[in-house]
């Protein structure tokens, strides 16, 4: 799937914001944001935590912690530098509860760094350079137990298995 996150420029937000939200099925969200700046320099730091217990009898609960920083700098009338950094960690309840797909937790971590330099060239033209780095770490560990009936050469064969799965991926 595609995730499209639209953020406001740091210069559009100032001051301190605290927000706490609660709801059905253990939903909780807390946000703390600090934004400051003056002519030519703005910064914003956001810390957020989310939690919900999901639907009954389904392992779909989740906990997420997010940290984002965004800064914009105008060293002169032609140049603009925007820097962003962020970190996200979450624990997600997954699995259907069967032998080969047991209920379990999946741990995810990601971070990003981004820099964009823009220079005004005149006549409405500009030159822009973007550099970024993103990393995702996914960890899913479980033991699969089960049995399966197979028909081989006209004979019914029942297989029993136990498999330890340790799935880690860096993207």
Folded structure, characterized:
The protein is mainly β and 171 residues long. It is built from no helices and eight strands. It has strands spanning 15-22, 28-38, 41-52, 62-73, 79-94, 104-122, 125-152, 155-170. It has an eight-stranded antiparallel β-sheet with strand order 1-2-3-4-5-6-7-8, with no helix packed on it. The two termini are 16 Å apart. The model has no long low-confidence stretch (mean pLDDT 83).
Give a brief description.
The chain is mainly beta.
Q: Enumerate the strands of the largest sheet in spatial order, edge to edge or round the barrel.
A: 1-2-3-4-5-6-7-8
Structural class comes to: mainly beta
Described by the principal axes of the CA atoms, the overall outline is: elongated
Low-pLDDT runs of 5+ residues are none
Q: Could you describe the largest sheet, including whether it forms a barrel?
A: 8 strands, antiparallel
Let me know the average pLDDT. 83
- The count of DSSP E runs of length 2 or more, i.e. the number of strands, is 8
How many angstroms separate the termini? Answer: 16 Å
Task: Note the total helix count.
Answer: 0
What is the gyration radius calculated from CA atoms? 24 Å
Q: Looking at the chains present, what oligomeric state does this protein adopt? A: single chain
Strand content: over 45%
Question: How do the helices and strands follow one another from N- to C-terminus?
Answer: EEEEEEEE
Please give the share of residues in helix: under 10%
